[in-house]
Amino acid sequence: MTKRLAEVAKKAGVSEATVSRVLNGRSGVSEATRASVLTALDVLGYERPTKLRGERGRLVGLVLPELQNPIFPALAEVVTASLAQRGFTPALCARTIGGVPERDYIEMLLDHQVSGVVFAGGSYALAEAEHGHYRALTDRRMPVVMVNAGVDDLGFPHISTDDAVAVEQAYGHLRSLGHERIGMVMGPEDHVPSRRKLAALENKDVLVERTNFSMESARLAAAKLIERGVTGMICASDVLALGSIRAARRLGLDVPTDISVVGFDDSVLMTCTDPPLTTVRQPIEMMGQAAVDLLVNQIEGSGVEPDELLFEPELVVRGSTAPARKRD
Q1: pLDDT in tens, 131-162
Q2: What does the alpha-carbon distance between residue 85 and residue 67 come to, in Å, rounded to a whole number?
Q3: CATH number assigned to the domain comprising residue 221
Q4: How far, in whole angstroms, is CA 107 from its chain's centroid?
Q5: Does residue 10 lie in a domain region?
Q6: pLDDT tens-digit map of 162-171
Q7: Do 179 and 131 fall within a single domain?
């Protein structure tokens, strides 16, 4: 017990006596200090006293699908900084292959009495995936915000990049360079953001290969498009774009002389790739801050409609695109 008091006191930046007063429900402690102690208790994994278990601390879950794609750590940085400024402590939950599933993360966050949850790229973005585990959040009336397109009937507000504008920018750029045979490396068939990108170009003559979001699978998909004669490729992420560039090089082609490639995200270090990647930039900072604003409004009792807030992307032209080569 003494060890627990010391650890919680150190984490919350208060005395052990203050921690004891909070845990025993005594007066003489400000609400801000009380919230800090309860949050420290949650973060350290200690069980709250029975009489305090019905109260939410100032802990907010941030659930990410992975950390290998640089766009997710970038989003996490914005969200966690914004949460800290609003007096909340973020709890980062990142999924890995064979690791903790999203369902278990939700149960863990609920057990820790979190104030709300921000999701980015979870199973809600896959139309055919299992979505039943989100009902636990609805049943608890948990404040939730989901980043980037997902299934409409879940009833949570969304923050999304406008996928239609993004793909139109990329397609228009390649067409302006004279590319007539354009391919798209997109996510799985039930991936909602990829569906939106494809729908925006449904009347255009484009070739499509689907893949998961790994660089190696992108290489295989891009190789198929190159074999079908494309000279320009639009990719659903920067990671897929880098895999596509690798595919071109393994086939003895040069990027951008023979093949032009456009990514999506503008994640960190894309200016340092060879060649620097032309990509469609997601406004991650604005999206992350908007997600926190929506979440905090819910936590504080303000009414938030379960609508989708769209942010316009920006085409960033670098060295991976060039005019199409004239055919002999």
Answers
A1: 888 888 988 889 999 999 877 778 899 999 99
A2: 23
A3: 3.40.50.2300
A4: 20
A5: yes
A6: 999 999 999 9
A7: no
Cβ-in-10-Å burial (0-12, 13-18, 19+) of 319 comes to middle
Residue-number span of the structural domain to which 18 is assigned: 2-52
Give me the number of domains the chain comprises: 3
Cα gap 56→145, rounded to integer Å: 17
Count of Cβ atoms closer than 10 Å to residue 281 Cβ: 19
On whether both 141 and 69 belong to a single domain, the answer is yes
Phi, psi of 109 (to 5 degrees): -65, -40
Around 199, how many Cα atoms within 13 Å sit in the side-chain half-sphere? Answer: 11
- Residue 64: φ, ψ to 5°: -115, 150
Distance, CA of 116 to CA of 294 (rounded, Å): 11
**Cβ–Cβ under 8 Å, residues 197 and 125:** no
Same structural domain for residues 86 and 142?
yes
Q: Are residues 122 and 155 in the same domain?
A: yes
Can you give the pTM of this predicted structure?
0.81
Question: What CA–CA distance (Å, rounded) separates 144 from 62?
Answer: 10
Print the SS3 string covering 204-249.
CCEEEEECCCCHHHHHHHHHHHHHCCCCEEEECCHHHHHHHHHHHH
Q: Are residues 276 and 302 in the same domain?
A: no
In a domain, 323, yes or no: no
Q: Is residue 121 part of a domain?
A: yes
Report the pLDDT value the prediction gives residue 51, as an integer from 0 to 100.
Answer: 58
Contact in structure between 312 and 163 (CB atoms under 8 Å): no
Q: What six digits make up the tokens of 326?
A: 């004239």
